Amino acid sequence: MRIGFFDSGIGGMTVLHQALRFLPKDDYVYYADTSHVPYGEKPKEEVKKYIFEAVDFMANQGIKALVIACNTATSIAVDDLRKRYDFPILGIEPAVKPAVQNCKGKRKKVLVLATSLTLREEKFHNLVNRIDHHDIVESLPLPGLVEFAEKLEFRPELVIPYLKEQLASLNLDQFGTVVLGCTHFPFFENSIKQLFPEGVDIISGSVGTAKNLKRILEAKEQTNDGTGDIIFFKSGVKVEDKETLANYKMLLEKLDGMSPITTGV
């Protein structure tokens, strides 16, 4: 079984990491559209064009299922992608529902951190309007975290000053749950956690997406027939240089060493 994973860059690794836990014997094609990253600050139609070009390429690689491991790409393209292709396509969206449920009775708010494009999209606003009956959800774009991640820059001494500046206008004591609404953001979970009061939960949708992928493929009896291989592509070019492959391995190992992110899915 060959499963495709797509993201604008390395953020989708955080979802791939979870899929490898649940489906370790399948094969994977990971496509990072590094020629056009970041997506979150670009016009919607431009990004949509890049997404369809990438998925067309991946379909030609023989994938039998696809995970859009990018909140921005999911919000603007997943419905149209499902109309074009006949294999299962899973997206990822900010985990607003479990976050709101987590804050029930705590008199605390939810803070969704994501890209500007994700937060502007109708899909996100519909999600919030459907779930947030008590007006407890706030949001904040953090495009700088995507840039840090793509540069493989995770040092707290650089990341935390950026976070402090962006969060300065908020009263952090009022939040009970923080939603990582971009797949790049779990790389910075420890830095984010340092800035919020003790007891604040950090939620990501990646675990729920991986579990859903396993559930769908097992129902189709299409799992566990590979060798666990991962083929990486960067904007249509197969990654073969040892340094880049070593960096990708490092990212997956970095995620192995992090504390599990709370998920309500």
TrEMBL record:
Q: What is its EC number?
A: 5.1.1.3
HAMAP family the UniProt entry points to: Glu_racemase (MF_00258)
Q: What residue ranges are annotated as transmembrane?
A: none
Q: What does this protein do?
A: Provides the (R)-glutamate required for cell wall biosynthesis.
Keyword list, A-Z: Cell shape, Cell wall biogenesis/degradation, Isomerase, Peptidoglycan synthesis
What name does the UniProt record give this protein? Glutamate racemase
Q: Which residues bind substrate?
A: D7, S8, Y39, G40, N71, T72, T183, H184
Listed GO molecular functions? Answer: glutamate racemase activity; identical protein binding
Which pathway, metabolic or otherwise, does it act in? Cell wall biogenesis; peptidoglycan biosynthesis
Q: Which domain of life is it from?
A: Bacteria
- NCBIfam families linked to this entry: glut_race
Task: Tell me which InterPro entries the record gives.
Answer: Asp/Glu/hydantoin_racemase, Asp/Glu_race, Asp/Glu_racemase_AS_1, Glu_race
Please tell me whether the keyword Cell wall biogenesis/degradation is annotated for this protein: yes
Active-site feature positions? C70, C182
Q: What class of enzyme is it?
A: isomerase
What chemistry does it catalyse, as a reaction equation?
Answer: L-glutamate = D-glutamate
